[in-house]
């Protein structure tokens, strides 16, 4: 089936309308009419070939929400009309230790929602900046938020799970002091989620203009990270700091804020390396630097249900498809509060 999408033909070209082909739903597949798709900074990294190996044409988008239009004969639990989501994963090997543990995100055979090899045309996956997608039912999430919130649910499928998973893994909760660095799409969800989990939340931003907003999102304190004195006041006090920044920067400034055995969890994925941290900042207090990638399907459903229960959605700016290129430029300037979401009805 031909559908309209928005994609780029080369790394130095803007995104533009293109026609793509979606497979007919197989026995285990769910066919979804996409209502909204969030714009993740990863989309920009990928479409501009900032990471190696982008295949063109490239159709990004892995914060997908919509309605089921058809299901294959083996599919149980989804039917036409259901509100559903698709995040960063559309397939995996389904039989390794990671898949068995519900950690499909760490499966060596994980197939991402765009730019991963697939037997479907054109040979790699094409994402959610499109009218429709067909996905194996294992990787389809149920949306329990009210339909009116659907656009603001979209960013939970990547920004939500990418912050929820490390916050849970490193024990964010009552009695814990948690930092969130970089108040963009991921960071603003990190603040909301850590707050809802009961942690004491400190937001770190380079933008003085985000101070009030970060408090409104649920931060207990805000630190402008360029202010050395404000940073020093928090030395040796954090259990966990989640770093979402999309550009290389000094990690030592945050490492020294951790207590003994504290962890700096990196989720931001800049194209070039951070300057090497000072090893003494790790040795002296048995501190750790770790990474985390999105989350598994079961945990993504848990996160969506947690958000529905706590009334959590993303703060979004809804855009038309013809504003995607402009929104990328604004995202690079940090001019987004806090996630752009495409109204996919404007693709047609
Ligand atoms: P975003 O909306 O652009 O937010 C990034 C934030 O980082 C900015 O708002 C800004 O916050 C801060 N920042 C400080 N200096 C910066 C600089 N020089 N350039 C860019 N940002 C700077 O991006 P996002 O969608 O949240 O994604 C953040 C990063 O996470 C990206 O690298 C993305 O690829 C990655 N990511 C990783 C995973 C994973 O699984 N690990 C999943 C999704 C995305 P302040 O103004 O508050 O300083
Ligand atoms: Zn993403």
Question: What does this protein structure show overall?
Answer:
With 348 residues, this protein is an alpha/beta fold. It folds into two domains: 2-158 and 314-347, Medium-chain alcohol dehydrogenases, catalytic domain (Quinone Oxidoreductase, Chain A, domain 1); 160-291, NAD(P)-binding Rossmann-like Domain (Rossmann fold), CATH 3.40.50.720. 23% of the residues lie in helices and 26% in strands. It has helices at residues 41-47, 97-100, 150-153, 159-169, 185-196, 211-217, 228-232, 252-255, 280-283, 297-310, 324-332; strands spanning 2-7, 16-21, 29-38, 64-71, 83-86, 89-91, 111-112, 132-136, 141-142, 177-181, 200-205, 221-224, 238-243, 258-266, 288-291, 316-319, 339-343. Strands 3, 4, 5, 8, 9, 16 and 17 form a seven-stranded mixed beta sheet that branches. A six-stranded parallel beta sheet has the order 12-11-10-13-14-15, with helices on one face. Helix 4 (159-169) packs across helix 5 and helix 4 (159-169) packs across helix 10. The two termini are 15 Å apart. The relative contact order is 0.16. The model has no long low-confidence stretch (mean pLDDT 98). The structure holds NADP nicotinamide-adenine-dinucleotide phosphate and zinc ion (ZN).
């Amino acid at each position: 089936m031909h559908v309209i999408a928005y994609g780029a033909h080369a790394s130095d070209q803007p995104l533009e309308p293109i026609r793509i082909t979606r497979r007919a739903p197989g026995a285990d597949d769910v066919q979804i009419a996409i209502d909204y798709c969030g714009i993740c900074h990863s989309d920009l990294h990928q479409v501009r070939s900032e990471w190696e190996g982008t295949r063109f044409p490239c159709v990004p988008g892995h914060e997908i929400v919509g309605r089921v239009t058809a299901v294959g004969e083996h599919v149980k639990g989804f039917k036409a009309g259901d509100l559903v989501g698709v995040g960063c994963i559309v397939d995996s090997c389904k039989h390794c230790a990671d898949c068995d543990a519900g950690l499909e995100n760490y499966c060596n055979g994980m197939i991402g929602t765009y730019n991963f090899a697939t037997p479907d045309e054109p040979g790699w996956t094409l994402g959610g900046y499109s009218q429709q997608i067909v996905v194996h039912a294992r990787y389809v999430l149920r949306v329990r938020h009210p339909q009116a919130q659907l656009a603001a649910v979209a960013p939970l499928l990547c920004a939500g799970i990418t912050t929820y998973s490390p916050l849970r893994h490193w024990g964010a909760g009552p009695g814990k002091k948690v930092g969130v660095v970089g108040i963009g799409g991921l960071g603003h969800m990190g603040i909301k989620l850590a707050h809802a989990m009961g942690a004491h939340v400190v937001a770190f931003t380079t933008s003085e203009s985000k101070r009030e907003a970060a408090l409104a999102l649920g931060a207990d304190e805000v630190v402008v990270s360029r202010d050395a004195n404000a940073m020093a006041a928090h030395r040796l006090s954090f259990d966990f700091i989640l770093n979402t920044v999309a550009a290389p920067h000094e990690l030592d400034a945050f490492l020294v804020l951790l207590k003994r055995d504290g962890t700096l969890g990196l989720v931001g994925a800049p194209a070039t390396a951070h300057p090497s941290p000072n090893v003494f900042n790790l040795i002296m207090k048995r501190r750790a630097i770790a990474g985390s990638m999105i989350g598994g399907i079961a945990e993504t459903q848990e996160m969506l249900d947690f958000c529905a229960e706590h009334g959590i959605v993303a703060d979004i700016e809804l855009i038309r498809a013809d504003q995607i290129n402009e929104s990328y430029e604004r995202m690079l300037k940090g001019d987004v509060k806090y996630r752009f979401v495409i109204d996919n009805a404007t693709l047609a």
